[in-house]
Design brief:
The protein has 174 residues and is of the alpha/beta class. It has helices at 17-30, 47-56, 77-97, 107-112, 118-127, 143-148; strands at 7-11, 35-39, 60-64, 101-105, 133-137, 151-154. It has one domain (7-164): Rossmann fold (3-Layer(aba) Sandwich), CATH 3.40.50.300. Strands 3-2-4-5-1-6 form a six-stranded parallel sheet, with helices on both faces.
Length: 174
Amino acid sequence: MERKGQIQLYTGDGKGKSTAAAGLALRALDAGWRVLFVQFMKSVPSGEVAMLRRLGDKRCEVLQEWDDSFIIGVASEKQKAMGRRLWERTVARVESFGADLLVLDEIAVALSFDLVDEEAVLAFLKARPEGLEVVMTGRGAAKPLIEASDLVTEMRKVKHYFDSGVQARKGIEW
């Protein structure tokens, strides 16, 4: 790889962080890149993930490990184990898969619940292959994750139809 990979972070309370990451993954696939799309704390198939799998053929791999459980207050040991296993699988797969783009969807939230070790993530970002582009998402990104990033976009909710009772809709939210 001749290019220098950057680290991007999409955070904030607004809608569209994961969708932006998926759009970037589609753009990378179109450019011939290999994409590793990792979803923390998600297991329900979304439209973006289904499309990445369909269009990506063998150049896109999606990793998930979650049981649809909610975290109320503090993560359970089972939830922490799922997060740790997914992180370990991710680190191992980056090189064996030959990823050009790594998306860590909801990593900021996973870190806030201590599902993944923050120091391990920061060390990985620092030591990653030079050409690896990394895109991270999630509300409430902590200062160390922001400081490790080359690009940080904060998505801020100004108004949202959810607040008036509109439910998540297939094709729009998932």
